[in-house]
Design a protein that fits this description.
The protein is an alpha/beta fold. The chain is 43% helix and 15% strand. α2 packs parallel to α12, α3 runs parallel beside α9 and α7 packs across α8.
């Protein structure tokens, strides 16, 4: 379903739309990463979370998927912005990570939800962190998955990943975009959870046909680059926090997770061996093994303090 929130439209999937009984369940809101769509969440993960008793909500971020495209905000000058970023100069994004956090609160409001568990992946983890900073009472628990504090001095992508990401498709047709995206995904893939190339190609094609927003990706990227104050604010987070990260992540190294966990009082840090910067179907069991106890502990804590 498409909901008008915060002045834009967000494409939303809510398990309560299919199963009305889920309206009585605790809510788990899933926030996807840079340029990715809600279809990237593994179906096995969504089903297991529902089976565990949660109302599961996921959505396309602004500027991605079937949510509002904000092309009227212009084409970001990424090369120039990157130079300014490296020089420590102020950036001027079309919107901020904080604005994206406001989208999520407006989404919860539209659905009549006061409080929710929040899990964000990669850029989505940054949005989730902003939510927990801005309105701690509304965030029952926080899970920052393969994300970062954004602090200065943290390690960045490996040279191989950086090279793959700096390249561009030869054209904007499906075959060219699929070939380019496949190279990027293989560069950030998990050593322990390999996905056959043909399966990856099929999924990339599905995503391309659903929505292809290269300018949206650039605007989101600039928002992430400009979010330089978040690290210093993480100490304000009081929601029970799980920092979950692949130990083989070549895009956002594990040191970024360690830094995030250090900055949030009481946060639990768990590394998944052999996981890169992706969430393949095969990695769902170790993710759930960490996530479900975290959610349950937060739920029990909420019940005892009520």
């Amino acid at each position: 379903m498409n909901l008008l929130v915060n002045g834009i439209k967000l494409e939303v999937e809510d398990s309560a739309s299919t199963y009305p009984s889920h309206l009585q369940r605790p809510v788990l809101l899933l926030i996807m990463g840079l340029g990715l769509q809600l279809i990237e969440w593994p179906q096995a993960l969504l089903q297991e979370l529902q089976d565990a008793g949660y109302r599961v909500i996921c959505f396309d971020n602004r500027d991605s998927g079937l949510s509002s495209a904000l092309d009227h905000l212009g084409k970001p000058k990424l090369t120039w912005s990157l130079l300014r970023f490296q020089m420590g100069l102020e950036l001027h994004p079309a919107y901020t990570v904080g604005d994206m956090a406001s989208d999520t609160f407006a989404l919860l409001d539209a659905l009549g939800i006061e409080r929710a568990h929040v899990l964000g992946m990669s850029m989505g983890g940054m949005v989730a962190q902003r939510m927990a900073i801005a309105a701690p009472r509304r965030v029952l628990s926080l899970c920052s998955l393969m994300s970062s504090s954004g602090a200065k001095g943290l390690p960045g992508p490996t040279p191989q990943v950086l090279k793959a990401m700096m390249q561009r498709p030869g054209a904007q047709d499906e075959a060219s975009v699929v070939a380019h995206t496949l190279q990027v995904l293989q560069a950030i893939a998990s050593p322990a959870y390999a996905t056959p190339p043909e399966q990856l190609r099929q999924h990339i094609s599905q995503a391309y046909r659903r929505s292809y927003r290269p300018l949206g990706i650039k605007r989101q990227m600039l928002a992430v680059m400009a979010d330089t104050t978040r690290a210093a604010l993480l100490a304000q987070i009081s929601s029970p926090t799980l920092v979950l990260h692949g130990r083989s992540d070549p895009l956002v190294p594990f040191a970024c997770a360690e830094d995030t966990a250090r900055r949030i009082a009481g946060a639990t840090l768990l590394g998944i061996e052999g996981l890169g910067h992706e969430l393949p179907q095969q990695a769902v069991p170790p993710v759930l093994a960490a996530l479900l106890p975290h959610l349950l502990a937060a739920q029990l804590r909420t019940a005892t303090s009520a």
